[in-house]
Each structure stands twice: as structure tokens, then as C-alpha cells.
């Protein structure tokens, strides 16, 4: 009797993605990579006060606000997916390091939630040790049970989608410079600026005051990295370098700059101090969010800032 081969049915995998930290930079890459492999994803809901409070209860006091928010998002995904994705990204080469939090986040989170039985998934980028992004995705896909060729294909397609998305976003920012309104360059990490509880309310405040917020971090990344060396030839944090480069490119096309950061942030405190010292007379507001400020205090500071710009332009 001939033995019939049993059809192996692969149960669809669902990956949980915290809507925090690098999600705001890599959502298109991740979504398109996983969907290319037929993997479903579930993204946590936008940040609320409850998510922040939950995350704060799991974090050490010294953790930055972004880490606290991240842990709250992870908690909200526990039990709702097969794996929660937390990449470990160390660097993209010389002078292209990520904040050390991105190296530690996976281990810290796995340890924090070890009693829940939740499984986590990671990929490691460490170009200084010959582990680039493509290799990291390849290893992750193979670990999930896919063949090398299908993983390579999914990564290439996802990378193309990501580059196209960045290009579109940069184009959209360029359009904003043409508007006949007060233009404010908002400079900060995407996970602060885009966060529903921290950065979005600030963007809405500016819009209510008839100003246009424009993102310094949505810029052509390669040339921003090169320009950032004017601020400091030894600057090493990838994202801070992109933001600094974005400011240097556009500071003469805006009426004011808002540096928006999370408390306490090592890279921002150093780099923003340099930006403030090298500022060439453009009105600049340094806003450090700790998640506890009521909207009223921040709104008053932004209002005064917009008034100062109005005086400078002779509008008040
Ligand atoms: S760069 Fe700052 S805000 Fe971002 S993870 Fe590091 S310490 Fe936190």
C-alpha cells in the first residue's frame, strides 16, 4: 500500500507589535515583511494615560518616558499573539549607534514579563559585527520556519515599500514649507512626536494656533547624517544625527524650532544642548516631556513661544 504524504498545514502565526519606540520608524518594513510571509500582525492601541501608567508600574524609576510607554504597550499585547516583536538594534556601522536602550529592550522586556508565558521575537542588527539588517531579517524568518528564498523575497519587497514610504513622507513635509503660515520645525524622536499621548497633542496645539508643525526627522536620511557632522564630527547616535541634520537643512526655512524630548534622555540631553548653543538666533523652545505635565502648562509655553515669533515677525 502506497503511503500518502500527509499535508502539513501551517497554523497562521500572529505577531504582536507594540505601537511605541521603533514602530514609528519601521512599521511599513515590519508590516510588509510579515504580510509577505503570510504572517498576521496585531498592533497595540494608541497610547493612553492608562497605557503609560501600566508601563510605569513595570519600569524602574530611572527609565525614560519612551521605555515606560513601551512596556505599557507590551503589557497590552500579552496573550493576544504568538510572539511580540522587539528588535535588538545596536548600530548600523561606525558612528551610527542606536541609543543603548535599543540593545537592551528585548532582554529587559523578556525578563519583566517572564512569568506570563508570552513568547517574544527579535532580530539583531549589529553592523560593526557583520550583522546587517538583511541578515537579521533572514535569521528571523528562518527561525519562524520559512525557507531562505521566501524570506529574502519578503525582505526585499518590504525594504522597497519602506524606502517609498520615507520618500513620500519627506515629500509631504516639503509641501508644508510652502504654506503661508507660521512654520515650526518639530525636532524629536518619531516615537515621541507621533505618540498619541505625548507628541500628537502638541501638534494639535500648534495647529489650533494656526501654526504648521513640520518634522525635522522626516528628511532624506543619508544626507542628514552627513550634515549632522557640522554640529559635531564625533556625534554617534543615528537618530539624533538624522534629526540634527534635518534641523541644519531647514532651520532657515522656518519661524521657530521646538526640541521635543522625553525625560530622562541621555542622547537628547547632550545633542539638544549642542543644538541650543549653535542656534543662530531662531526662536527655539526646548520641551522635555515627563508624561505628568497637564496639557495646560505645555499649552501656555507653546502659546508664549508662538507670541514671541509673532512679535519678531511684527504681527503682534
Ligand atoms: S534616545 Fe532617549 S528617549 Fe529614546 S530610548 Fe534612548 S533614552 Fe529613551
Automatic annotation (TrEMBL):
DUF2229 domain mapped to chain residues: 15-217
Protein name, entry field: Acyl-CoA dehydratase activase-related protein
Pfam family, one: DUF2229
InterPro entries reported in the protein's UniProt record: CoA_activase_DUF2229, Dehydratase_Activator_Redct
Superkingdom of origin: Bacteria
Amino acid at each position: 500500500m502506497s503511503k500518502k504524504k500527509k499535508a502539513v498545514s501551517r497554523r497562521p502565526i500572529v505577531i504582536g507589535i507594540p505601537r511605541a519606540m521603533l514602530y514609528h520608524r519601521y512599521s511599513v518594513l515590519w508590516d510588509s515583511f510579515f504580510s509577505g510571509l503570510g504572517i498576521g500582525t496585531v498592533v497595540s492601541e494608541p497610547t493612553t494615560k492608562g497605557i503609560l501608567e501600566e508601563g510605569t508600574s513595570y519600569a524602574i524609576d530611572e527609565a525614560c518616558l519612551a521605555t515606560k510607554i513601551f512596556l505599557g504597550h507590551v503589557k497590552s499585547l500579552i496573550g493576544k499573539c504568538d510572539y511580540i516583536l522587539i528588535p535588538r538594534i545596536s548600530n548600523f556601522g561606525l558612528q551610527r549607534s542606536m541609543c543603548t536602550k535599543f540593545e537592551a529592550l528585548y532582554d529587559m522586556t523578556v525578563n519583566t514579563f517572564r512569568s506570563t508565558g508570552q513568547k517574544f521575537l527579535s532580530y539583531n542588527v549589529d553592523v560593526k559585527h557583520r550583522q546587517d539588517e538583511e541578515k537579521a531579517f533572514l535569521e528571523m524568518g528562518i527561525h519562524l520556519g520559512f525557507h531562505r528564498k521566501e524570506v529574502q523575497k519578503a525582505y526585499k519587497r518590504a525594504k522597497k515599500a519602506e524606502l517609498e514610504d520615507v520618500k513620500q513622507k519627506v515629500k509631504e513635509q516639503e509641501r508644508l514649507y510652502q504654506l503661508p503660515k507660521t512654520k515650526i520645525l518639530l525636532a524629536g524622536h518619531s516615537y515621541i512626536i507621533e505618540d498619541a499621548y505625548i507628541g500628537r497633542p502638541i501638534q494639535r496645539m500648534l495647529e489650533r494656533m494656526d501654526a504648521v508643525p513640520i518634522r525635522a526627522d522626516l528628511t532624506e536620511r543619508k544626507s542628514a547624517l552627513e550634515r549632522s557632522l557640522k554640529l559635531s564630527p564625533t556625534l554617534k547616535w543615528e537618530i539624533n544625527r538624522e534629526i540634527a541634520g534635518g534641523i541644519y537643512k531647514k532651520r532657515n526655512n522656518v519661524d521657530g524650532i521646538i526640541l521635543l524630548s522625553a525625560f530622562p534622555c541621555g542622547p537628547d540631553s547632550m545633542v539638544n544642548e549642542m543644538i541650543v548653543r549653535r542656534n543662530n538666533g531662531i526662536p527655539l523652545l526646548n520641551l522635555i516631556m515627563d508624561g505628568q505635565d497637564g496639557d495646560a502648562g505645555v499649552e501656555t509655553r507653546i502659546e508664549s513661544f508662538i507670541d514671541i515669533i509673532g512679535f519678531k515677525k511684527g504681527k503682534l
